[in-house]
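Re: Re: ligand-bound prediction request (bumping)

Still looking for help on this. To restate: I need the protein modeled with 4'-deoxy-4'-aminopyridoxal-5'-phosphate bound, output as structure tokens. Inputs repeated here so nobody has to scroll up.
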Amino acid sequence: QPHIRKIPTNQPVLPLEVFSSRLGKKPEEIIKLDANESPYGPPPEVFEALQDLKHPNIYPDPECRQLRTALAKDSGLGANHIIVGSGADELIEMIFRCVLVPGDRILDCPPTFPVYAHQAAVSGALLVKVPRKKSDYSLDVQLIEKMVDKERPKCVFLASPNNPEGSIVNDEVLLKILDMHVLVILDEAYIEFSGMESRMKWVEKYENLIVLRTFSKFAGLAGLRVGYGAFPLSIIEHFWKVKLTYNVSITAQAAACAALQNPAYLEKVKVALVQERERLFTLLKGVPFLKPSPSYANHFLCEVAPEMDAEKLKDDLESMGVFLFCLEFDFGSAFATRPSEWTAS
Ligand code: PMP
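Reply:
Sorry for the wait, this slipped through. Here it is.
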């Protein structure tokens, strides 16, 4: 197509309906673990709020005032630090639109959430890759510092807990990276499962920190698309300028507000998911050809021994109605790549 520039593909997971018709099973019979969604769904207040929706003929509040006020109350951070988006994904995309011009660099620490690298490719930003340490997926802070000095990336993306394996960034490491004077994007999509406090409040102190959160995981609202970012006041005004005017539907805003009204339900679901994570982790540790990684998230990564075919294992589980995400990555040195291993999460 002569009018379209070259765009890298991304690989979203398939919808539940496709899985269920493929297997001839009801959606409720499918065990869908490939996108780290909540199997429990949102609190009942969400369904009530959706039934009570009025005025679909009127545009939604472009500033999500009610939701931002509720988030501010819960987090102790002023609503003026918060922007809501259509999932944390939209905020990632906004960061690229607001901060980077083609040719700028971002620093990425794979294996991690692939949307950072994909958005970099879409926006023409160059990727400075600093792979995580093979032993425990922790960040290689020394190498990050070296690459920041050498390549001068504009921002560093860090997921804590990380996707795919669920390791966290501790305070000491975060402070070291904040000290490198790059913009740090701390993606806390899974923070609720970590037992740690969110670093949202840190944006009051650190002018180079953006914290991302989402209702997709802990609140069971992945299908309604609500995420948000906490920004330092010195940069948030620029983000308001790039945000699409009516980016969060009335449905999504109402659902997120309703979810926050039932913290007891959200806590119960979180505890159940963490317990289940630990139970499954212990079980899988006993399987000789699997090596699950300890996780602070609602999911974990399971390395598959080289003599096993991870893709086939995934297909076999699929035929039983269990859907996983299979990924391949390498632990080369920064920039270099090595023959890769298959792993299933
Ligand atoms: N960050 C991470 C680390 C994720 O794993 C995900 C979802 N898979 C997101 C952000 C995006 O979440 P959302 O559904 O809010 O767009």
